[in-house]
């Protein structure tokens, strides 16, 4: 089964996102629980969730994916920024319990000069504080491009965070792989997809890979930049991305586009991928 969707605005609620997804040929989607800059969370209404569930079951949706605010930096050198990250993270995880099919993705953060050895224990400390809130939710660390002082551009860094976290069973703590980010980080998924996935399996474990962000990239291989491009218009190219979604190791994992598109553009990319997917 190909679970394919894109990032949608959560302004109209869950049922509205479900209906929009259906309109553009999607059967999953990604959303923010609050303003991406970290503002107040929107109220989640039971009626809205009930209506969403009807749409999701009728159209056989895969798991949907919440994305943490971009301002959430669990390894900031500023203690008050880390405290803010922990509070938002914990509050988001509490809210997630009311949403069916719960994946919560976050960026491990930027260490802003502290160094990776200081950053990783700080990330683990926040995970240890918030993970008890995630009773039915799987928390995912996103693979990053390594721009600036970002943590999580090497599989080893994600594996270390996961192994040091107290609550870390694969159904509790996993990884979301972003194709633009890993390619920018120096993993050649265009020419060596099998090898990259083998490496992921060896270091992190493919059983932890529970969501995919499918993006082309505006910048070249190993650029350590994070500039998403529409499918086929960037350095990865449409062929590599089609090969990617057809890889046997990635079957059934929900895939979301984060390409620079409006709904119409997303619909076209979803059609392109569905037309080139072999069941
Ligand atoms: Fe992200
Ligand atoms: Fe992403
Ligand atoms: Zn990105």
Strand percent estimate: 5-15%
Low-confidence stretches: none
**Continuous helix count:** 9
Order of helices and strands: EHEHEHEHEHEHHEEEHEH
State the separation between the terminal residues, measured CA to CA: 7 Å
* Overall average pLDDT: 96
Total strand segments: 10
| SS content category | alpha/beta
In spatial order, strands of the major sheet run 1-10-7-6-5-4-3-2
Q: Compounds present? A: fe (iii) ion, zinc ion
Reported for the largest beta sheet, the result is: 8 strands, parallel
Q: Percent of residues in helical segments?
A: 25-40%
The coarse overall form would be globular
3D structure, described in words:
This protein is of the alpha/beta class and 279 residues long. It is built from nine helices and ten strands. The strands form two sheets. It has an eight-stranded parallel sheet. The protein has a two-stranded antiparallel ribbon with strand order 8-9. α5 (155-164) links the parallel β5 and β6. α3 (79-96) runs parallel beside α4 (116-130). Bound molecules: fe (iii) ion (2 copies) and zinc ion (ZN). One fe (iii) ion (FE) binds at residues 67, 107, 142.
């Amino acid at each position: 089964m190909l679970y394919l969707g894109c990032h949608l605005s959560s302004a109209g609620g869950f049922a509205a996102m479900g209906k929009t997804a259906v309109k553009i040929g999607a059967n999953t989607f990604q959303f923010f629980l609050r303003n991406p800059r970290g503002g107040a969370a929107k109220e989640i209404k039971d009626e809205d969730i009930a209506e969403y569930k009807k749409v999701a079951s009728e159209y056989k949706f895969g798991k949907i994916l919440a994305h943490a605010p971009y301002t959430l930096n669990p390894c900031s050198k500023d203690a008050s920024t880390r405290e803010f990250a922990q509070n938002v993270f914990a509050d988001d995880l509490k809210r997630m319990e009311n949403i069916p099919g719960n994946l919560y993705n976050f960026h491990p953060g930027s260490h802003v000069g502290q160094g990776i050895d200081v950053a990783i224990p700080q990330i683990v400390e926040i995970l240890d504080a918030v993970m008890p809130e995630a009773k039915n939710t799987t928390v995912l660390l996103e693979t990053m491009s390594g721009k600036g002082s970002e943590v999580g551009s090497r599989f080893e860094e994600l594996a270390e965070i996961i192994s040091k976290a107290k609550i870390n069973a694969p159904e509790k703590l996993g990884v979301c792989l972003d194709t633009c980010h890993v390619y920018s980080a120096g993993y050649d998924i265009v020419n060596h997809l099998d090898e990259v996935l083998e490496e992921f399996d060896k270091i992190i474990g493919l059983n932890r890979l529970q969501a995919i962000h499918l993006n082309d990239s505006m910048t070249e291989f190993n650029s350590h930049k994070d500039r998403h491009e529409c499918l086929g218009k960037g350095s990865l190219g449409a062929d590599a991305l089609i090969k990617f979604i057809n890889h046997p190791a990635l079957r059934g994992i929900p895939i979301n586009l984060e390409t620079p598109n409006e709904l119409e553009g997303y619909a076209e990319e979803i059609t392109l991928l569905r037309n080139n997917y072999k069941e």
